[in-house]
Amino acid sequence: MPATTPTTTTRETVIGIWARVWDLAPAAVANQVPGAPQLEALCAHTGSALRLGARALQAKARYRPGDPFPLDAWLAETEQKAAETRGLRATDDRKARAHAAGVVQNRSADALRRVEGFPAWVVEDALERLAERLATAEVEELRLRRRAPRYRRDPALAHSGAVHVAADDTEVAIVAVLSQTAPRWTYSSTPDGRMFTHARHGYSAEGDRSYVDGLSDVVDTVSDVIARHRGGLGGRVYITQRHVECADCELVIAWVGASAGTRRTAVGTCSAVADRLSRPGRVVRR
């Protein structure tokens, strides 16, 4: 066990896990190991690893209720399970970063027409930020974790349906780089909030999607905006340097940056969603 591993589990929890796996009374288990030094090592592991280790012993018939408490064997099995879990997570991490890096590489290769009008230093800064995020973003469920929404103020306090998304020129350029369309940058959200780019209008099959979660403050914030506007059904939007437009109701659902334009903004749930859901047999897909 690495010396730098922080304590994550209390002694009571460790004893409780063993008691539940073997259907024993926690007090009886505690009486067997009142001051065992191995408990400190076991406390450095997560509850998941401890349960896996105990069940591994159970499967191997290495312990029967009434036997001396097998702390050394449990610790060995727990450390093995923890190492296996770290290996799986490392593999998932590499896969997620490799996929995201492939998307960034493909989008960067043909980004010139989409970043037209941006100063060269802004585009360079955008590519540097993307490279940094590829290296440092946290990974969950085989994808980069979405970045925290960045609003200029709490959307719950907005007087209209169009919130303001905080963004500097570099963040806006990142949206352009990652997109596959211009001059409006087309993005879609799945019902669970995953954001992807695509070149076609209408529904995009899974194989045609390039997921871009965790790479853009603006795009990940727009995911949150879409969820609010479309009642959690996902949907397609067009992002420009100034606003975000719902592709269905064609209303502005967010302003990009501090300034608001004069276009009509959405209030409440997208009218197109309500219309589609009212038709028998209709399924909304994005």
SSE topology:
Blueprint: H1 11-22, H2 26-32, H3 38-43, H4 47-59, H5 71-109, H6 120-136, E1 139-140, E2 143-144, E3 163-165, H7 169-178, E4 185-189, E5 195-197, E6 210-211, H8 217-229, E7 235-239, E8 243-246, E9 252-256, H9 271-277
Parallel strand pairs: 3-9
Antiparallel strand pairs: 1-2, 4-5, 4-7, 5-6, 7-8, 8-9
Helix pairs in contact: 1-4, 4-5, 5-6, 6-7
Name the features.
two-stranded antiparallel ribbon, 2 domains, seven-stranded mixed beta sheet, 286 residues, alpha+beta, 9 strands
Outline the structure in words.
- With 286 residues, this protein is of the alpha+beta class.
- The longest helix has 39 residues, at 71-109.
- The chain has 2 domains: 11-84, no CATH class; 144-277, no CATH class.
- The relative contact order is 0.09.
- The strands form 2 sheets. It has a 7-stranded mixed sheet with strand order 3-9-8-7-4-5-6, with helices on one face. Strands 1-2 form a two-stranded antiparallel sheet.
- It has 9 helices and 9 strands.
- It has helices at residues 11-22, 26-32, 38-43, 47-59, 71-109, 120-136, 169-178, 217-229, 271-277; strands at 139-140, 143-144, 163-165, 185-189, 195-197, 210-211, 235-239, 243-246, 252-256.
